[in-house]
């Protein structure tokens, strides 16, 4: 039996397994969507107020109070700023490195399982297309069996082929939509985190300059 015959024999098993595979992918994708939506929802905060509180405490030179305020928030923005504040005594350069590291960790936490969601969104139509090809092969076989006559079996095979494509699209579209939505939210949060981190760095550099001036004056 050559490769063509083997593939034909495999196709004759039907496209039902393709549809069940797509259903399984859709269930896993939905679970990821719900889990990521919950994670991003509970880690949100009023960033404008958070930043205002941070600046107020830094202007009053109360680093400990700023740390306490950041610990009260579950947001990524607060975690990045806190990483810098925790390294305040080590200097602005160290604080910047700590915040860069926290930013990378926060990105990984927010993007967890999104690669699977993106893969499903990009490839589900092709899985559905595989089911369509199998259905068409079976339809031609049914047409040959009926000696060129349109039969109920033929129409059933054609219908199965079209349904496989439809299911593939229905699985892919929500996956792509939510993948893009989550990526946009993550990008916005990381941008705001970077802005808050810069406020911390500006404070630390300002304090270093003040200390340098004070030491120069004392000499």
Automatic annotation (TrEMBL):
GO biological process: protein import
Record's subcellular location: Cell membrane; Membrane
Keyword terms: Cell membrane, Membrane, Protein transport, Transmembrane, Transmembrane helix, Transport
Pfam families: MotA_ExbB (PF01618)
Entry keyword Phosphoprotein: no
Record's GO cellular component terms: plasma membrane
Residues passing through the membrane, by range: 12-34, 114-141, 161-182
Residues in coiled coil: none
InterPro entries listed in its UniProt record: ExbB/TolQ_transport, MotA_ExbB_proton_chnl
Signal peptide range in chain numbering: none
Residues annotated as domain MotA/TolQ/ExbB proton channel: 74-192
Similarity annotation: Belongs to the exbB/tolQ family.
Protein name from the UniProt record: MotA/TolQ/ExbB proton channel family protein
Annotated membrane topology: Multi-pass membrane protein
């Amino acid at each position: 039996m050559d490769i063509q015959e083997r593939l034909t024999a495999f196709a004759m098993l039907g496209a039902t397994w393709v549809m069940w595979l797509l259903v399984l992918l859709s269930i896993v994708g939905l679970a990821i969507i719900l889990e990521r939506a919950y994670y991003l929802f509970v880690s949100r905060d009023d960033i404008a107020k958070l930043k205002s509180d941070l600046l107020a405490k830094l202007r009053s030179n109360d680093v400990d109070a700023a740390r306490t305020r950041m610990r009260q928030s579950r947001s990524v923005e607060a975690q990045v700023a806190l990483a810098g504040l925790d390294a305040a005594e080590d200097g602005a350069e160290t604080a910047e490195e700590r915040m860069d590291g926290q930013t990378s960790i926060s990105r990984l936490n927010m993007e967890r399982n999104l690669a699977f969601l993106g893969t499903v969104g990009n490839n589900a139509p092709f899985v559905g297309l595989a089911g369509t090809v199998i259905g068409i092969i079976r339809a031609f076989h049914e047409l040959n069996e009926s000696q060129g006559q349109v039969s109920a079996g033929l129409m059933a095979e054609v219908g199965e082929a079209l349904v496989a494509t439809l299911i593939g699209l229905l699985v892919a579209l929500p996956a792509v939509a939510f993948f893009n939505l989550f990526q946009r939210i993550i990008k916005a949060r990381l941008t705001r985190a970077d802005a808050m981190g810069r406020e911390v760095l500006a404070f630390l550099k300002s304090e270093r300059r003040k200390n340098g001036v004070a030491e120069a004056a004392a000499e």
